[in-house]
Design brief:
Elements: E1 4-7, E2 10-13, H1 24-28, E3 31-33, E4 36-40, E5 46-49, H2 51-62, H3 73-86, E6 92-100, E7 117-124, E8 135-139, H4 160-168, E9 177-181, E10 187-190, E11 194-199, E12 202-206, H5 215-226, E13 230-234, H6 238-242, E14 246-251, E15 255-262, E16 265-266, H7 274-287, E17 298-300
Length: 302
């Protein structure tokens, strides 16, 4: 467990980093957050992956809920680095969060000093988010949020109740992960990760519009193209997954993980496929500073 949390401009002991039970975000889900990872590099130093890209998305996510984060992007980036350094962590998961504080008297919020915006940064040793094996996956009965009901590309706290309800349906079962469809019945994404499909050595992924704008997704798309694979962003029917050669998930927490079965149907040979393995290996090289071409994604912790 992390000993220090950055809260509203200062590092505080874990037990002192608190918020009021009447905070607006607790009642209405009005917050935005990011999931970021830092990795120990090949030379023993620590670097945060895609820090600027994540914090940029955090600020973009704040716009739909009229949130003006009271720090600059650079200040939040510095807070992330300071938190990782202060906790003397090597490879770790990092959670920046901005949310509306007191009071929750109405759903509507307006720029008002009486409804302050709180900002925290928490870091801890997560380890593997999902097992590092070919996953058993189920297509969920719950659909991904409708694009006319919310800003689906934003990482807003309240959105994840959708994922939670879907995950509860596989709780206690053999399934490791799920796939959510969009309102038209096309494949959207996993519970907290983006999805890719490989067919005849072409890499496919659902187009933007009903999915989270994934940072890892974008890195993997660029990586796949650099490695010579054709990448197509398109609508994918769920039945196409069953005949795919490979299916895999990407995300900051999950990194790159293969699907072995979907709705009990074996994908490929049921193991991590060669293209998934290739992309996973090369992605982790980026994370660990072993591919200088991608070092612009790395922010050293000094």
């Amino acid at each position: 467990m992390a000993n220090l949390i950055w809260q509203n401009g200062a590092l505080k002991p874990f037990e002192q980093a608190t918020t009021h039970v009447m905070s607006h975000a607790l009642h209405y889900g009005t917050g935005v957050f990011e999931g970021i990872r830092a990795y120990e590099q090949a030379d023993g130093t620590i670097a945060v992956l895609a820090l600027k890209e994540h914090i940029e998305r955090m600020f973009v996510s704040a716009d739909p809920i009229a949130m003006k984060i009271p720090y600059t992007r650079e200040e939040v980036c510095a807070a992330v680095v300071a938190t990782v350094k202060a906790n003397e962590l090597k490879s770790c998961y990092i959670r920046p969060l901005a949310y509306y504080g007191l009071p929750p008297t109405k759903v509507r919020v307006r720029p008002d000093p009486k409804t302050p915006i709180e900002v925290i940064v928490y870091s801890y040793d997560m380890g593997d988010y999902l097992p590092d094996v070919a996953l058993d996956v189920k297509i969920s009965d719950f659909i991904r949020l409708h694009p006319q009901s919310t800003a689906v590309g934003a990482k807003i706290c309240g959105h994840y109740v959708n994922s939670l309800q879907a995950l509860l349906q596989i709780s206690g079962t053999k399934y490791n992960e799920l796939i959510m469809l969009d309102y038209e019945g096309y494949v959207a994404e996993g519970s907290s990760d983006n999805l890719f499909m490989v067919k005849d050595k072409v890499v496919y992924t659902p187009e933007l519009g009903t999915i989270l704008t994934g940072i890892t997704r974008q890195i993997v798309i660029g990586l796949a193209q650099d490695l010579g694979y054709k990448v197509v962003e398109t609508k994918i029917k769920p039945e196409e997954l069953y005949t795919a050669d490979e299916v895999f998930f990407t995300g900051t927490a999950v990194e790159v993980r293969a699907a072995g079965t979907i709705n009990d149907k074996t994908i490929g040979n049921g193991e991590e496929g060669p293209i998934t393995k290739h992309l996973k290996t090369e992605y982790l090289k980026i994370c660990r500073g072993q591919n200088p071409k991608y070092n612009h994604y790395l922010t050293p912790v000094k």
